[in-house]
Amino acid sequence: MSTNLHLATVVLFFLTASQSGIAMARPMVPGARDPCAVSDFKVLCRSVVKGQKNVNAATEVSIRELMKRTIKAKQAAATGRKSGGGLKTCFSNYDNALENLQKALNNIKENDGFSLNINLSASLTQFDTCSDAMGGDKASNTVFAKSTSTLHEMADNCLALSTLVKQ
Question: Signal peptide location in the record (predicted)?
Answer without folding.
Answer: 1-25
